[in-house]
Amino acid sequence: MSANASTDQSGSPAVDPVQRRRARRMLVLLFVVCAAPAVAAYLMYFVFKPQGGTSAYGKLIEPQRPLPTLAVHDDETGENLPLSSLKGKWLMISADTATCDENCVSKLFYMRQIRVLQGNERTRVETLWLVTDASKVSQQIDDAYPDTRRLRADPVALASWLRTQEGTGLRDHIYLVDPLGNLMMVFPKNADPGKIKSDLSRLLKWSGTG
């Protein structure tokens, strides 16, 4: 070690306060750069709004709620994994029982069609069905939605993460999670799929993530 190198009382090299501040600024800058596309989408869509734009149809969840570490079971692969591992794409989520009544089928159909209607951007979106019981899904529904990922999840744990609106339950909504893993929007009961599609299209336009 150079004779000019300074050390603290423990004998370890002293850290230059200027270098420490510079390192902290770099970490903050890296975070901002990584999060910038999603942040820009929120600002442009919900705060500044493009000229002639209208308010979002879905209800923005504030504060955002990160994907939990809740363990889920993948029906297709048999794998157990944390829900938090699904970051990286825009997620449209429905939570419902395996019997999947008319409302459940409608949500699955809407999510599939909304994704398809995103055109070339559809690869940035994944549809997700969180099944809230252990019953078997019918072959008819299984065949109709091969591109919808199906995960088994505890409904009580889900209810502590997914937000509902007054007078509604967990099974009444379609939810949207951003690529950073934040639950950021919930759509109303008996939602208008055309308006959901418009919300998602705008977010994909203004965000480079996912």
Characterization of the model:
This protein is α+β, with helices and mostly antiparallel strands and 210 residues long. It has 2 domains: 16-50; 59-206, Glutaredoxin, CATH 3.40.30. Helix content is 34%, strand content 20%. The chain contains 5 helices and 8 strands; from the N terminus they run H-E-E-E-E-H-E-H-E-H-E-E-H. Strands 1-8-7-4-5-6-2-3 form an 8-stranded mixed sheet, with helices on one face. Strand 2 and strand 3 form a beta hairpin. It is globular. The protein starts with 16 loop residues before the first helix and ends with a helix.
How do you describe this structure in short?
The chain has 210 residues and is an alpha+beta fold. 34% of the residues lie in helices and 20% in strands.
What is the total number of structural domains?
2
CATH architecture of the largest domain: 3-Layer(aba) Sandwich
Q: Care to count the β-strands?
A: 8
Percentage of residues in helical conformation: 25-40%
User: Which regions contain 5 or more consecutive residues with pLDDT less than 50?
Assistant: 1-7, 31-37, 43-53
Shape: globular
List the helices and strands and how they pair.
Layout (H helix, E strand, L loop, with lengths): L16 H32 L10 E8 L4 E4 L5 E3 L7 E7 L5 H15 L8 E7 L7 H6 L4 E4 L2 H5 L14 E4 L4 E5 L6 H14 L4
Helix pairs in contact: 1-5, 2-5
